[in-house]
Fold this protein.
Amino acid sequence: MDEAFIQRARELAKPFRVDDGERFRLADVDPADTLHLDSEDKPRAKEALAQGIEVLAEMQDMLYAQDRWSLLLVFQAMDAAGKDGAIKHVMSGVNPQGCQVFSFKAPSAEELDHDFLWRCAKRLPERGRIGIFNRSYYEETLVVRVHPELLEKQKLPPKLVGEKLWKQRFQSFRSFERHLTRNGTVIRKFFLHVSKGEQRKRFLERLESPEKHWKFSAADAREREHWDAYMEAYEDTIRETARKDAPWYVVPADNKWFTRIVVGAAVIDAMASLELAYPKPSEEARAELAAARQALLGE
Ligand code: ATP
Ligand code: MG
């Protein structure tokens, strides 16, 4: 494993890592930030991403062989922030058998008949796998908070719906994540932070090119009207749930090439912290391997 490369990845991701929520302010992150890099560095950034993808593939192979840890990557963002593209690019090198992606949409009737963690708990990655949540239980303090009428659909006993509801949801997130962490799931959460102006530009592109029409929905444009409420909800959610062992990365998302290298770097950093290695066969297993080899050679 290329230690110098891993170190560089760690340094690139670090400025965007939030592991002490109390000090976090969304206003401190500029969606257009590209650190010391500018658009002339784009080709080099692409090269670094390609190298990162190879490193990730190698690490994932060990994660799978070792079969002890699992990695859960949670992606949240406003529409058109580039979640899908980031997931597609960063994970492009990994073996599909070791990676599971789930997209969480508005909950179904069956899902509404359960507590809000149920549908996510069912889709957690198995040991040795990388699980990606494209949206997640975090929608419960984002879209549901911005649109409280969604809460009514959840059929909670009225007695349980009070002022403390959002605080209680944050508590649920934290204890759920602590539980998973203690049982071998490493959690990293990403908020791809796009500006309102850049979202407008991307929506217009979707409207102007026929091959992108399918990506546009009028509902997405309507959600823009609630922009400030969403930003407040994101800030509060991150402040309440960023912890050392389940950090958020608030990634500038106005430049897709930059978003992708930061996400890639954060994933490499997370995997590198696991001291992955191929399992060593036991004495007995080695004897079996030697015997099998002899038998094959003797055919
Ligand atoms: P894209 O639009 O890029 O295909 P998307 O993630 O926006 O991807 P959509 O099909 O638009 O996918 O569906 C996601 C919608 O479901 C979002 O508007 C989201 O807020 C909503 N949603 C997700 N979880 C919940 C939830 N728990 N309660 C209510 N709405 C939710
Ligand atoms: Mg959408």
Summary: The first strand starts at residue 17 and ends at 18. The radius of gyration is 21 Å. Residues 79, 220 surround magnesium ion (ligand 2) (CB under 6 Å).
